[in-house]
Amino acid sequence: MIVNKSDIASDNQKSLQDHQDKFDFLSNSLAKSEINVDDLVNKLADFQVAIPSWALGAGGTRFGRFSYGGEPGTLEQKMDDVGVIHSLTQTAGAISLHIPWDIPTDYEAIKQKAAQHDLNFDAVNSNTFQDQKDAKESYRNGSLSNTSDAAREQAVQHNIDVIEIGEKLGSKSLTVWLADGINFPGQGNFQSALQHTEDSLKKIYNSMPEDWSLFIEYKPYEPNFYSTVIQDWGTSFMLANACGDRAYTLVDLGHHLPNTNIEQIVATLMLKGKLGGFHFNDSKYGDDDLTVGSIKPYALFLIFNELVQGMQHNPQNPYPAWMIDASHNIKDPLEDLIQSLEAIQEAYAKAMLIDQNKLMEAQAANDVTLCQEIIQSAYRTDVRPILEKARLERGGALSPIKAYRNLKVRETLIKERGLHSVASGL
Amino acid sequence: MIVNKSDIASDNQKSLQDHQDKFDFLSNSLAKSEINVDDLVNKLADFQVAIPSWALGAGGTRFGRFSYGGEPGTLEQKMDDVGVIHSLTQTAGAISLHIPWDIPTDYEAIKQKAAQHDLNFDAVNSNTFQDQKDAKESYRNGSLSNTSDAAREQAVQHNIDVIEIGEKLGSKSLTVWLADGINFPGQGNFQSALQHTEDSLKKIYNSMPEDWSLFIEYKPYEPNFYSTVIQDWGTSFMLANACGDRAYTLVDLGHHLPNTNIEQIVATLMLKGKLGGFHFNDSKYGDDDLTVGSIKPYALFLIFNELVQGMQHNPQNPYPAWMIDASHNIKDPLEDLIQSLEAIQEAYAKAMLIDQNKLMEAQAANDVTLCQEIIQSAYRTDVRPILEKARLERGGALSPIKAYRNLKVRETLIKERGLHSVASGL
Amino acid sequence: MIVNKSDIASDNQKSLQDHQDKFDFLSNSLAKSEINVDDLVNKLADFQVAIPSWALGAGGTRFGRFSYGGEPGTLEQKMDDVGVIHSLTQTAGAISLHIPWDIPTDYEAIKQKAAQHDLNFDAVNSNTFQDQKDAKESYRNGSLSNTSDAAREQAVQHNIDVIEIGEKLGSKSLTVWLADGINFPGQGNFQSALQHTEDSLKKIYNSMPEDWSLFIEYKPYEPNFYSTVIQDWGTSFMLANACGDRAYTLVDLGHHLPNTNIEQIVATLMLKGKLGGFHFNDSKYGDDDLTVGSIKPYALFLIFNELVQGMQHNPQNPYPAWMIDASHNIKDPLEDLIQSLEAIQEAYAKAMLIDQNKLMEAQAANDVTLCQEIIQSAYRTDVRPILEKARLERGGALSPIKAYRNLKVRETLIKERGLHSVASGL
Amino acid sequence: MIVNKSDIASDNQKSLQDHQDKFDFLSNSLAKSEINVDDLVNKLADFQVAIPSWALGAGGTRFGRFSYGGEPGTLEQKMDDVGVIHSLTQTAGAISLHIPWDIPTDYEAIKQKAAQHDLNFDAVNSNTFQDQKDAKESYRNGSLSNTSDAAREQAVQHNIDVIEIGEKLGSKSLTVWLADGINFPGQGNFQSALQHTEDSLKKIYNSMPEDWSLFIEYKPYEPNFYSTVIQDWGTSFMLANACGDRAYTLVDLGHHLPNTNIEQIVATLMLKGKLGGFHFNDSKYGDDDLTVGSIKPYALFLIFNELVQGMQHNPQNPYPAWMIDASHNIKDPLEDLIQSLEAIQEAYAKAMLIDQNKLMEAQAANDVTLCQEIIQSAYRTDVRPILEKARLERGGALSPIKAYRNLKVRETLIKERGLHSVASGL
């Protein structure tokens, strides 16, 4: 299914005047604070977030899964789904493939499909946390950190294979999320597991083309419940430094212990030029993988404040790779992704509203009350008209969720694919 | 120092037109969704939050304290400070006394002072977590739960004394926060500590006048670090039920383990008619006692959603007592309280914007995406013009923080009281 | 496969003298502190813990599952596995069935099988967190709390069906673990979800035979990640009170927020006569379901201290139902269960070593140092000879893990059932 | 007060035979597993832990403090207290001074006092988290990270002063615990705070004598409740690397977010040669500063397992500085410290009992059950006779707590110093 610009435009029609009024009022109001709203709209419109290929089907928990009708059964269908989201939001201009769940069979066809939907291929993701059928070695006891040479070699080789697949599609980076770890004290040796991981990552790093980057993810727990080899940003940062200049840390919002100050980690990594990528989601307890902005929108805004600062003032840091990494257990996955994109844009827009000059002055004067007023003033602003404007200018929907429903996307997908289609992969 | 309505009015002058434009635009916009903004303004204006007598001086941590100039040295000066806050915000129409830190010497004078500032006397608070000079029994090993009969009796009697003081001032409720607990496994017996506490609370309850209420606070840890006798809402609720109809649970936002769903606790208590009072603050790690809304404003909004529902639909629950309970370690305490009041009103206003009928329909249809849209739409609205309007109608300041600074309140207080005055109590 | 007493006895032979020496030395040493070791051995031998029918196969996480050879494919095979464990440990004298995963087809055969292995049927467990094939109503949006009457009725009826199955086998209690909850703020109404749950539980309670008990489990999160209807012991306790005298709270060690003082909850429930059952496991982060005692053995000991006290001094509380509820992701499930049983017995034995009279005296004197000495002295004692003795007297193995391996149980199971058998259920 | 070896010896007399019996039995038993108990006793006897000068008086919380009779009022008296502890335990052979609380007035006298008690001077500690009387600059808004040049310079100079004091006493290292951080989002700039801190630390580092080491402590929160500049080991490690070879990370057990795997951090730091020091205490919720081993003794054992491995196999890491950093709110501080030392020695002894060869084999074979058996077997051993032996050989007490009481130390201290003496410092 393809959502046409003309369909979107006609759906926008009835809310257009209301949008225009609100945008003009807000625009005038912000202009008094010397905020250039046009510039803000452009930056928003340029901001593109990748959708991972595993996010288009219903997710689940260890207790089971409630499936959703019309799930995409092939990589092509997954790309169509991302195409729908991108048409409506104009913010999802990339797809991030997970290997081996989504290995292309016909690369040219896949690349044409991407071009048709105006999508880039973002970072490719390897998988060494599950055993594939007919695999010689098992990852039950680890992959890049395994005590067995053969298992480590298999895992390294898999990553090299993933890089090759990515090269054929135009990807420029590899994301390594390592589930490796142990469930019980004594089950493994911390030092040798770390050393093995470092050695394996170096091999992968050295196998990358020269214009590629390596993103090293970290996570404190799950699926291992006593220790994870790359447990925190400090470990990832250390490993990235050991690999080389094009190795970076990747931050996933849900991969932190309770109460972690994530925005501070972001600031540190960007100061040191080592923030490579960012996975968006939200959570209350652990790696809950909920819709972005659904639980802690203020924390997301504070993180974006650091991202905005870093993108402006830290030339030592590359432009980060953005991706949504959520699990859609209970909502229509496409609606969930649209809500996530809206929340990301909202946080980004609000962060750009912070008057950085005034804030620096207030910080220098240790005027704590005023610092808080400045931050909260930006956050309290209703930026929805600006988001609408950014989408409108690119041909997207004023309200993507409403348009998605008005245009009967899910109904059409179910008609096309059936009620009991099952997404490949997880 | 007294802040006059005329001074406030003249300070408001320069922002009045801007306020009016924003309020009108928002008002028109909300009217399209059939929201009665006048009604909302009235409810906001009626909402009054008590300021505790210990909140007017600089707080500290166990590592020390950085004092603030012009701190109030007497109960009268503390009331003056609350008067200033109330003049500017029109939301702080009550004071909550802490005994023995703030025992009135001349009750009539104190009552006149309250009337002059338009303040009520909210719940009175007892203190059995510190030893007072010349006290016969020590609370080192507990108060209402102490293994010693004499210590328990002294603690019960102190609460009865506090009630008597409250009666003379017109208070109608007693808040008991019990620090009792232990630092080490085995230090005390859980069952007997709980039984002693229940017995002691019953004695206090039975000593109250018939129109008084008892509020029982809970807290998981600090100042005891292994166990606290009243560790959670379940224990408080059980004790309140054991005492009788006019005993209630009091929720302090900071008194929960990491990740607790506080809004659900609020809903449960109101369903059962047992939410007596609410202490506002914010926190990231523990009982951090930060400015309300400074860390998790969305959680505050969700809590207010439950409070609004409960106030409308749970006649079994009394109107709760509201109080700010924060510690102003680093900001001017009056500015901090003003920011807290603003955040409370914002959350209250946004909660009232939720379209409850649509939400119920969406919930009944299990339309999870739509439920989220409805909730977030209310939250994303910029309600500051409504807050301004509510203050304006009562003679308060459009922007209380700006007015506080323009009117040079702190400078005047320092002039009046000196740079090194020290607040009584903590 | 059946493990014979004679095989065990001959395997014990080579360690018997070593055991006897250690037991005698410890026994003499404890006798000096007036501890009756024989009494302790008898109590240990009488302590029986149920094995749930879902625990005999390899568990998994949402990221996948690594299977184990020789998994039991039928209820009969599961019972054989419990039989093996019980033969070796003499502590696993009961099985707890999960319905609909393990519905007996031939009740008489199943009961004979149980008798043969010397097993009782403990509490039966219902399942309303997954949709069964051909179910009319889905539990995607809840079961006992669902907004739909039909879904609630189906869930209530399922529980009634489970009771009937249990009756046929001689079970005397039903455990209800309710996954009901929501993933997003606003997705459901807290008050009506709680009210529905209370009403549904009452219906189930009133359908039970008069000699049955209802155990109500609580859990803060997972598989729902914003709110769970029965989120804590306070909610479970409130619901149990609403149902009636034979409704109780069930505590699962892994179902708590970080840092919860679980032993205090146990003490409170036993004081109020409401601790119905206990699920053992261990965890570092969330509901990790690791081997009992593998992460926090001291906390387990402190919990057993409260259990021992409650069993002795709280006649108002029934004898609790004990069960292991762990997930064996990485170890041989039978070995994991044996290690869990060993840890439970160790904690129980050490708790019985606490000199309660001295402890009470020290508590009354507020001698905090001495209280800690008494508690730690019990904990520091190496009680393994006592555990060995308790097993030995009943015909169990001195070292169950070693015997399990020496007797080649897993190898035999793989031979009997194949390398790729898959456990029914999860 | 001085505790003489002869007094201790005569107090030991009545338990000597009992000790000898238990030691012999254990020794024989361990010999069968080829464990050289004499070697173990020697290592234990050599293990010395510093007592900080602020730990000899009663601690408190922000809610107040319950004082203890006979507190040391001067540095000399504090050294006497450490002398008492060392006499009894033979494990507290060092003192760690906190400046400016404990600046010596007569260096020669202090050094003689140390020699008399057989004490070394361990790391010196600076204090930039409180304002000292007559200080020109305030640390209210930070010290090494302050936006003000003057404040940073004052803080750097203070550290240089502390080094000079330490040099005169024979210390060889400086511990910097930095409370710097912010309470509210926006209050400060993360990047500039980190950069200032790095620059300040480099100045301090470069001012140290060439044989000195710098220990950089980290802590996630308290006394600041939104962000701390050096929030975790990763930040400390990064700063230590930036300073140079003799800058190290210092781990304090209480300075971690909930559920952190501390033993893994220890292993990583030792592998990289960067673990400089270790502060012992215990906690359930935050930085509770409870007696070592009173809450999570198994975690302490697992940490010691890594420390033992690192001391044996990581020559790249210096021998770490050991110190107890607890707050004695409710117990006699000397008794509390003695209990802490006992718990440290117990964990150390048990860690040395782990059969590392068998463990490595089991790890290589991925025999998870056996790995756990090996670890738990060491932990379950009652090592108290070994601890007694180690003390006995050096002239310490078989049971230091009992001896402390039998010798009436506290009573004597109260007689000498009075009931209301107050410890200098916190």
TrEMBL record, chains A, B, C, D:
Region Disordered: start-end pairs: 132-151
Keyword field: Isomerase, Manganese, Metal-binding
Presence of the UniProt keyword Glycoprotein in the record: no
Segments of skewed composition (Polar residues): 140-149
Superkingdom in the source lineage: Bacteria
Protein name per its UniProtKB record: TIM barrel protein
Biological source species: Maribacter flavus
